[in-house]
Design a protein that fits this description.
Layout (H helix, E strand, L loop, with lengths): L2 H11 L3 E4 H15 L4 E6 L5 E4 L1 H17 L6 E8 L3 E9 L31 H11 L3 E6 L5 E9 L4
Helix pairs in contact: 1-4, 2-3, 3-4
């Protein structure tokens, strides 16, 4: 069974509950610092007490996919930034890294199933499901996701907006 199918099943069986997005993000970034010890992780948690309705486990899986993507497209020793902010209505998660810019021809397809822009000559096989899984999880949380080049053209940023819950 594919990972996407397993996520779809998990989503179908998930009963939404209120959870702290900032606690999930902080916990994940702490683990990434150990797992990817050849990258630096910058966490900017400007949104304490950011509550959402959905699944903390699914948000962690979503972040795993975004970080895996950031690691794949950045160089060892570089910094991957994770920022958390909120407005009155939304929780905003941003994951950015230095590296290649988004291909103009694929900007509208990035979150589709089986889409990959990785170099095909790499050692590990990549099926192109990571960003599709991100999209599935964001949809479950009734949020939005977008990808764009950084303003200084040094890399890319993925932004997820989730509806904010009042605890």
């Amino acid at each position: 069974m594919s990972e996407a199918t397993l996520i779809e099943q998990a989503i179908a069986e998930t009963k939404p509950e209120i959870f702290s997005v900032d606690k999930v993000i902080e916990s994940c970034v702490t683990a990434y610092r150990d797992i990817y010890n050849d990258r630096q992780f910058d966490l900017d948690p400007r949104a304490p007490d950011s509550w959402a309705i959905g699944s903390a486990d699914l948000i962690a899986q979503m972040l795993d996919k975004l970080i895996d993507n950031a690691v794949s497209f950045s160089q060892p020793g570089s910094t991957i930034s994770v920022a958390l902010n909120h407005t009155d209505r939304d929780i905003i998660i941003r994951v950015s890294n230095t590296g290649p810019l988004l291909p103009e021809s694929m900007r509208n397809e990035l979150f589709g199933s089986l889409v990959s822009i990785r170099d095909k000559s790499g050692e590990s096989q990549h099926l192109g499901l990571g960003l599709y899984i991100v999209q599935l999880i964001v949809d479950f949380h009734r949020g939005r996701v977008k990808a764009e080049d950084l303003a200084d053209k040094s890399g890319v940023c993925f932004e997820i907006d989730l509806p904010r819950s009042r605890e």
